[in-house]
Structure formats: structure tokens, C-alpha cells
Amino acid sequence: MNRKLFYGLNFLLVVSFLWSVVVDYSAEWRDFQKLYWQRQAQYLEKEAAETDDAGKQEDFGKRAKAARREPMVIRQIIAKDLGRVDRCITCHVGMDEFANPSLATPFKEHPFAGHPDISVLAKKHPFQKYGCTVCHEGQGLATTKEAAHGRVKHWEKPMLPGRLIQASCAKCHMDVHATKGAENVALGKDLFQ
């Protein structure tokens, strides 16, 4: 009796382990990363084909091969000073400054686009110090689209839509009138007063 129970529980343990591997391997973020790197490789190959400069062709070709070999990993920003961990760049790879130092991409749709208006933000708000959710809200540790955007039950700070993102400036900047890039929140403050 004990031996059968032992074998049965071991079988369940192995099945649950295999199930966890399957669930992890089919995670939503993997599809986003894979598609990003495929698009990046195709873009670089197209650039290589369109240039007459042999040096640029070789560079684009090497970068395209590297993009096709890029591993699928959980990417994260650890903002120690703020006590935050953001995994947003797991899906938004174009906004990962280590994978894409320029933070610019030729893609317009999310999650493949680069970060807009980076000139003002990156200088005064380095991503490695602030992360993403300090401005954008959402759930930084999540790795599914719905959970990361905070569109789940009992999450009090869902991601702010683009037109409302400046509302986060007022969390740190008391004088929003003197804060470049906070014009909408300054207007809102004036209208309220």
C-alpha cells in the first residue's frame, strides 16, 4: 500500500514538474520577445540589402544574426533607491537600454516601439534608477500583459494611458509649472485652482 502511494505521488510530482515547464515555455512574454527579435533581424537585413557600403552591410548582417540568436529571458530593472523591480522590458525589449542602447526602433506599435521623447527623460530620469512603473504605474513584477498593465482585480494602480502619463510628474515635482514635459498637468492644476 505504501509503495503504491509512494509511486503514485512520485508520478504526480513528475507530471506537475513537466506541466510547469510547459506553462513556463509557453508564457506570453516569450512570444513578444521572439517577435521583436525576428522583426529586428528582418529590419537589419533589409537595411543591409539597401546599402552599397560593404562595411555597413557586414555590420547590419552581424547585428541581424545576433538578433536571431538572442535568448528569451526575463528582463528587469531593479530601482534600488525606490524599492521597485520592473519587468516591463521583458515584453518592451525596444525600451531595454542594454538590448537597445539608443532606445529607438523602427517599429511604431507596442510592445515593439522604442520609448518616445527620450531626450528629456533619459537625462534626468535614467531608467536604471527609476524604472518604468514610477511614471507609468502598472504592476512591475508581472509578466503577462493584463497583469503588467494593472488590469487585474484588486490592483489599485493600473497603467496610465499615454495622454495621462504626465500626472505622475506631480508625485515628485511639486512645481509642475517649472517642470519641462509636465505642461498638461500644470494646465490641469491651473484649471482646478
Q: How would you describe what is shown here?
A:
By secondary structure, the chain is mainly alpha-helical. The chain has 9 helices and 2 strands, in the order αααββαααααα. It has helices at residues 2-25, 28-50, 54-68, 118-124, 127-130, 133-136, 145-148, 169-172, 183-192, and strands at residues 77-79, 84-86. A two-stranded antiparallel ribbon has the order 1-2. Helix 2 (28-50) packs antiparallel against helix 3 (54-68).
What is the element layout, followed by pairings?
Layout: H1 2-25, H2 28-50, H3 54-68, E1 77-79, E2 84-86, H4 118-124, H5 127-130, H6 133-136, H7 145-148, H8 169-172, H9 183-192
Please state roughly what percent of the residues sit in beta strands, choosing from under 5%, 5-15%, 15-25%, 25-35%, 35-45% or over 45%. Answer: under 5%
Low-confidence stretches: none
Structural class: mainly alpha
Rg (C-alpha, Å): 22 Å
Helix content: 40-55%
For the secondary structure, the number of strands is 2
Order of helices and strands: HHHEEHHHHHH
- Major sheet strand order: 1-2
* Shape, per Cα inertia axes: flat
Q: Terminal Cα separation, in Å?
A: 77 Å
The overall pLDDT, averaged over residues, is 87
Describe the largest sheet.
2 strands, antiparallel
Question: What's this entry about, in short?
Answer:
The chain has 193 residues and is mainly α. The protein is 49% helix and 3% strand. The longest helix has 24 residues, at 2-25.
